[in-house]
Structure formats: C-alpha cells, structure tokens
Amino acid sequence: HFFRSGKYDLTFKSPSDPSSYISPGQLKSFIKDYPVVSIQDPFDHDDWGFTASAGIQVVGDDLTVTNPKRIVKATNEKSCNCLLLKVNQIGFVTKSLQACKLAQACGWGIVVSHHSGETEDTFSAGLVVGLCAGQIKTDSPSKYNQLLRNEDELGSKAKFASRNFRNPLAK
C-alpha cells in the first residue's frame, strides 16, 4: 500500500512528500541494503513488473487474490514467489486448494492468512498444517494454540518445514 504515482513511499507519513518517493530500482536496492526476508504486495496490485528474483520472499496478496489465473500470470511475469492464501478471496475451499497446489507446483511458498476481523475459529491453523505451508498470518492466539496442539498430536510424525520453507524448490 505504499505505491503512489508509479513510485514507492517508504516514509509512511500522511500526508507524504512526493519528492521522497523512490523508484522500483531504488526499492530493490533498499531490499538488498536492509535485512528484509519477506515483503507482501510490494507494488500496486496491477503492477506486474516487479521481479521475484530480488532474493527474498515476495508474497502476492492483492496481486494474486488466491486466483489460479492470476497465479499463472504472476509466475510468468516472475512477480511473486509466495502466495498469501485466503479462502475468503476466492470464496471456496476447493478453489483455494487448487490455487495452493498450483503455487506449490511453481515452487512458491504459501502463507495461509486470516480474514480481517476474523473469529477465534481455528480452521486456518488446520489448513496451514494440512497444506504443509510452513507460514501463517493471523492475529488470533487461538490459531497459535491450535498449532501447538497439532504438534503435540502429531508427536514424532510432526515434520519441520525446513530452512527452505519460503522457497520449496531450493536445494
């Protein structure tokens, strides 16, 4: 949400000064100069020009909207390398699973996400485990507690996602 007039506002001030906006190239330099490991929707939701080869996890949310057609486009354009999986965006669990499988087949990481204003329901915690996503975005302690219960229940069958969970095809 820091894309303004074709440039990026990293000042996070309101109102901001357009003379302080940085170009896409400067944003890439920022990512290299600071310990950024993951960034979500760094560009405008219709700006397909960012390359996921920045060496970090580039999570597509508004860009991909858990939609397989947009995931294919983002893969072809190399705009992302991770999917923010939100069941509410596509509207169906089965379509969400299709989007997840497609993203995983492309070598993307998966972040299972909550819906803003969500309840204490633990469905997304189960989904992150069932899909071996390795990442969850939530603001509800009940999800974290459920993940701990899942680990206890799995016991020795529980598997560490590995150091490469953000990039499943990395060696």
Annotation field: number of helices: 6
Query: Could you name the CATH topology?
Result: TIM Barrel
**Cα-to-Cα separation, first versus last residue:** 33 Å
CATH architecture call: Alpha-Beta Barrel
What structural category do the secondary elements indicate?
alpha/beta
The largest sheet, given as strand count, sense and whether it forms a barrel, is: 5 strands, parallel
Keywords: Glycolysis, Lyase, Magnesium, Metal-binding
Pathway: Carbohydrate degradation; glycolysis; pyruvate from D-glyceraldehyde 3-phosphate: step 4/5
Family: Belongs to the enolase family.
Catalytic activity: (2R)-2-phosphoglycerate = phosphoenolpyruvate + H2O
Describe the protein in words.
One of its GO terms (biological process) is glycolytic process. Pathway: Carbohydrate degradation; glycolysis; pyruvate from D-glyceraldehyde 3-phosphate: step 4/5. It is an enzyme of class 4 (lyase). Its main location: cytoplasm. Residues 2-168 form the Enolase C-terminal TIM barrel domain. The two termini are 33 Å apart. This protein has helices spanning 24-33, 68-77, 87-90, 93-105, 123-130, 141-154, and strands spanning 3-4, 7-8, 38-40, 57-60, 82-85, 109-113, 136-137. By secondary structure, the chain is of the alpha/beta class. The protein has six helices and seven strands, in the order ββαββαβααβαβα. The radius of gyration is 17 Å and the shape is globular. The protein has a single domain (13-157), classed as TIM Barrel (Alpha-Beta Barrel), CATH 3.20.20. Helix 2 (68-77) runs parallel beside helix 4 and helix 5 (123-130) crosses helix 6. The chain is 35% helix and 13% strand.
